[in-house]
Amino acid sequence: MPDLIQRGLRFVPPAVFTAVFLPELFLNDGLLNLSPGNARLISGLLAILVAWRTKNVTLTIVVGMLALWILQALIG
Amino acid sequence: MLSINADERLNQPRDEFLAGVKAVLPMMIGVIPFGMIYGILALNAGLPASAAQAMSAIIFAGSSQFVSAQLFSLSVPAVINVFTVGVINLRHSLYSASISPYVAKLPNRWKWTLAYLLTDEAYAVTILRYQEEDDDHNKHWFFLGAGLTLWTTWQLSTAAGVFLGVSVPASWSLDFTLALIFIALTVPAIKDRASLGAAVSAGVIAVIAFSLPLKLGLLAAAFIGIVVGLLIERKS
């Protein structure tokens, strides 16, 4: 395998995973939504913080879902 | 003497297998409802129950199965349906290329099995295990444990949707758990400035290019992310 490709493959996980989840946070029905009323964006940012500080998958999911439910209850 | 025994125990296939199972267990909270929703959706699309379940075993990829069932309901020609599923899953060829150096020396029966079991989640936990700096030769058992756990859960949860009609209300927003799983998987993959740059640039492109058909925006984002990562790495 050429050296450049081999070094490039190191970036597959961060690039692909971010490309999968980021639209789920920023887009609502395909439209950019940067308002604080975007519950998925706020919950997702909180989950990123939890994932970064704890590196704990379960805690990230639990905090993210709780945040989403609370925000949806407040907004809806 | 004791430490040698401990090292040997660490390298047992069984321990690696169980570690792989354990690594994906938290993700089941997202995989199970996703599978159930697929089951219901496939039946509503007009697929016979047997075909809906067979799709889980043959394709074994959540978003592709959703799209394939929808195309079936629209009576889209089979060739186009199969082609679409292939393109949507192109990111798996990136996963496969990235993991290939680690499995190159395995016998073919292992390679075929692991290739079949390769999913986003299995790849994410396994590549982290392979990147750990220890000379454990049984890491493919970790891959197998993670892959089989996801496979079994996917088959059972889609069967619950297909045959029992079990689902969860959309108002629970459990689809969001999939995004949360990816968040949890991304953070350990960001190890330096170059990988952070790859992640941020890929994420921005994915948002901008989201409306492209066949998830091609995702693929474009991945390639641009990789290039940005390489450029940052070269500078420093």
Count of individual helical segments of chain A: 4
Q: How much of the sequence of chain B is in beta strands? A: under 5%
**Poorly predicted segments of chain B:** 1-6
Q: Mean pLDDT score of chain B, rounded?
A: 90
SSE run of chain A: HHEEHH
Largest interface: A-B, 45 and 58 residues
- The strands making up the biggest β-sheet of chain A line up spatially as 1-2
Order of helices and strands of chain B: HHHHHHHHHHHHH
Largest sheet composition of chain B: none
- Share of helix of chain B, binned: over 70%
Number of strands of chain A: 2
Query: What form of chain A results from the Cα inertia axes?
Result: elongated
- The share of residues in extended strands of chain A comes to 5-15%
**Helical content class of chain A:** over 70%
Please tell me what the overall shape of chain B is: globular
Count of separate DSSP helical elements of chain B: 13
Radius of gyration of chain B: 19 Å
Q: What's the rounded overall pLDDT mean of chain A?
A: 92
Describe, in plain words, how this protein is organized in 3D.
The complex is a heterodimer of chains A (76) and B (236). With 76 residues, chain A is mainly alpha-helical. Chain A has four helices and two strands; from the N terminus they run ααββαα. Chain A has helices spanning 3-9, 12-26, 39-54, 57-75; strands spanning 27-28, 31-32. A two-stranded antiparallel sheet of chain A has the order 1-2. The model of chain A has no long low-confidence stretch (mean pLDDT 92). The termini of chain B are far apart. Chain B has 236 residues and is an all-alpha fold. Chain B is built from 13 helices and no strands. In chain B, 76% of the residues lie in helices and 0% in strands. The radius of gyration of chain B is 19 Å and the shape is globular. In chain B, 39% of the residues are buried. The interface between A and B is large, with 45 and 58 residues.
